From TrEMBL:
<protein>
    <submittedName>
        <fullName>Ankyrin repeat-containing protein</fullName>
    </submittedName>
</protein>
<feature type="repeat" description="ANK">
    <location>
        <begin position="37"/>
        <end position="69"/>
    </location>
</feature>
<dbReference type="InterPro" id="IPR036770">
    <property type="entry name" value="Ankyrin_rpt-contain_sf"/>
</dbReference>
<feature type="repeat" description="ANK">
    <location>
        <begin position="72"/>
        <end position="104"/>
    </location>
</feature>
<dbReference type="InterPro" id="IPR002110">
    <property type="entry name" value="Ankyrin_rpt"/>
</dbReference>
<dbReference type="Pfam" id="PF12796">
    <property type="entry name" value="Ank_2"/>
</dbReference>
<keyword id="KW-0040">ANK repeat</keyword>
Length: 135
């Protein structure tokens, strides 16, 4: 059984080697909720701006995990929008463009999360990505 605290700590400390070992040996570790607000490894990596870590993590993650939501109804792309992590947003849109149309628990469209959080660069990127992808 995978220890959630061990995953959380390794993520925060940026110990990719430890996470990789857990992911290879612990089935389902990418789906585990590891924080009080419902973050998975991917949510937390995006929230903390650990984009290199996130890029490696995406190799282990399927669409279901990418689309998972926190207890507040936020996907990883919502979090990228809220915290202004434009690089993470780009990686996520490349992997799963359908994330662009997900709504949060209040039925707010994703691009508005960046707007309301005053994340101008991320807002512009998401707006252009939505138009480019035909949404």
């Amino acid at each position: 059984m995978t220890n959630r605290k061990e995953l959380y700590d390794a993520n925060i400390e940026g110990h990719w080697w430890k996470i990789k070992s857990i992911l290879k040996n612990g089935k389902g570790a990418t789906k585990l909720v590891i924080s009080d607000n419902g973050d998975t490894l991917l949510h937390l990596a995006v929230r903390k701006g650990k984009n290199n870590f996130m890029k490696e993590l995406l190799k282990f993650i399927g669409n279901e995990e990418i689309e998972s939501k926190t207890f507040e109804g936020h996907t990883t792309l919502h979090i990228a929008a809220i915290v202004g992590n434009k690089d993470a947003a780009k990686l996520l849109v490349e992997k799963r463009k359908e994330l662009l149309v997900n709504k949060d628990h209040k039925s707010n469209i994703l691009v508005m999360s960046a707007y309301w959080s005053n994340q101008v660069n991320t807002f512009v990127y998401l707006w252009e990505a939505m138009n480019d992808k035909g949404f």
